Amino acid sequence: MKTSAQQPIIESLRTWYRNAIRNSKYRWLVVFGSLLYLVSPFDISPDVFPIIGWLDDGIIATLLVTEVSQLLFEQVNASKKKNQEAANNSADAATTTEQVVDVEAAPVG
Question: Where is this protein primarily located (predicted)?
């Protein structure tokens, strides 16, 4: 169970990580740093301790996968929305540029 002192620390670390990965200037640095941390033998808690050693790697991996997948999801949605708006604008432009020609019919013969 988390104590009240641990929760702000964990939330502040999560918020920092999220803001850092969403900043396009630092995004790849954070992603590669996270991957390097996961494969590095130097951890906050070494992996030789069975469960405790895997927790920090699991937390970093979870944060990384969650944030990268959310970024990709948002980009796909933005792309779909942009394409849909472009299609709507081109359809509106096509209907406004059409010209109507009124012709009177005359009987032949």
Answer: membrane
